[in-house]
Amino acid sequence: MSTNTVDNNRKVTTRRLVEMKARGEKISMLTAYDYSSAKILDEAGIDVILVGDSASNVMAGNVTTLPITLDQMIYHAKSVMKGTKRALVICDMPFGTYQGNPMEALASAIRIMKESHAEAVKIEGGSEIRESVERILSAGIPVMGHLGLTPQSINKFGTYNVRAREKEEADKLIADAKMLEEIGCFGIVLEKIPAELAGRVAAELNIPVIGIGAGGQVDGQVLVMHDMLGINKGFSPRFLRRYADLADVMHQAVGNYIQDVKSGDFPSEAESY
Known about the structure:
It is a single chain. With 273 residues, this protein is an alpha/beta fold. It folds into 2 domains: 14-242, Phosphoenolpyruvate-binding domains (TIM Barrel); 245-273, no CATH class. Helix content is 41%, strand content 14%. It contains 11 helices and 8 strands. It has an 8-stranded parallel beta barrel with strand order 1-2-3-4-5-6-7-8, surrounded by 7 helices.
């Protein structure tokens, strides 16, 4: 049963997220990459499903998010859309599809919207990608920004440590967030930055600010589904709360199945035709 009590059956849109922020209702957001998982999340009452480029890690087994392609992201987003009725579905634009070329960024975003039927895109970066964001927005495509730790830039940072601890980087993050709101983004994800800074950004913007490792003063939270369900047990940052231990549940279930097959217990007479 869903714990969401406000307009639970009403379709979530970019406009509704702004309304939720205005009335102080926190926004719940999780990743999904396939039909079955998206259907479960949607029926549970999640507000936003992010088809994250984290699929590169948890679905494809890559070390970073960089290798995943636009075609792969479209495949995942299309699958998620088929399992979703209420939640807003946002698709990450993968590395190499928007940096440095606004027209390529527009073409990539149009492909995502046309081929997957996703309802918005998310894009990493601030002032350095302004032209790409503006070009996408000019086509009427909703854009969510992403600041702080931007995993697509991991080779530039060289670390997944907390970002924007120093004043110069914090000032740039605030300026970038205000710029993204000004040019028309409907929301921003802040990843792995000090809670006080994230709270300041959320307070100074009218658009929703969703945090991951950014404290509780923002307008909502996002986690990777495989992390919070305990499917991916090799990732344990401070900001992660595990709500289940599905890796152990699945391991035990598979073990029981193997044992029953080997012993001849499965299938039983009742399970045969």
